[in-house]
Amino acid sequence: MTKNFHQPVDGAVVPRFAGPATFMRLPAVTSAEGLDIALVGIPWDGGTTNRPGARHGPREVRNQSSLMRRVHHVSKIAPFELCNVADVGDVSVNPIDLMDALARIENGIADIVKHGARPLAAGGDHLTTLPVLRAVAAKRPVGLIHFDAHSDTNDTYFGDNPFTHGTPFRRGIEEGLIDPKRFVQIGIRGSIYDAGEHDWALAQGVRIIYMEEFVRRGATDVMDEARAIAGSEPTYVTFDIDSIDPSQAPGTGTPEIGGFTTREAQEMVRLLEGVDIVGADVVEVAPPFDLAGMTAIAGATMMFELLCVMAAGKTRG
Questions:
Q1: What is the CATH number of the domain that holds 260?
Q2: Hey, how many other C-beta atoms are within 10 angstroms of the C-beta on 41?
Q3: Residue 225, domain member (yes or no)
Q4: Which residues of the chain have pLDDT under 50?
Q5: How many CB atoms lie within 10 A of CB 262?
């Protein structure tokens, strides 16, 4: 183990319910300087069109992430030995001004990127991914692996509003942040506004794997395709907690039945190993609608799964 790397507080020394809440019990730092991976909160849900509450997600995910330990039990990846990781706090947000909030989030993530660290964020609603991509993909478009119940490639809501949690990936393609030929969506399901709702995304070259196809093919086959689509170039991974069935993750703004089990979600993220992940997020955890912290613990666990594959990939790189 490299002693200069930050390490989590040991649960055998300080109980997991004690001490300050940080992501995975890592040190809280004020800068990403010297970090390989920066864990960051984005406590903002100004793009929500249904049930609000995801602004409270980062705080509760931090609480539940105290249950994460040092080594992955399947892959044996020990991320805190491979990379220097810490909690850089929350980016600045503005709860009453959407455009200012987007600018603040972009600037906060850009500060992480300029230090050479890769952001792993806890949202926040899914619109938060757009300003993150503006920072991560400022120099070149990235591929995108997207786990979600919803495509989030709609154009406008409530008249001509182009910025909601249902539009970030349309904007990301239009702004040249996402390479649509290297963009795959997994787990899409649920009723839609009209029969052609996904036509625009499909016309750009986005690969949509509906939940029914996932069930038919299984995780291994689907993720083989996802890795092939992403290729060897820089790729962002975004995980909407509503991709998991609401029986196991009820605390979210727009629940859709028929989703992944938590076990399937874990398996899929593990199968990302080998992808050049330049940033990732877990979004839409809404604690006001949660039960016994089960959605927040799912979110924290998915962050740990992402951290493991990011750390392994960063080391190889």
A1: 3.40.800.10
A2: 23
A3: yes
A4: 1
A5: 17
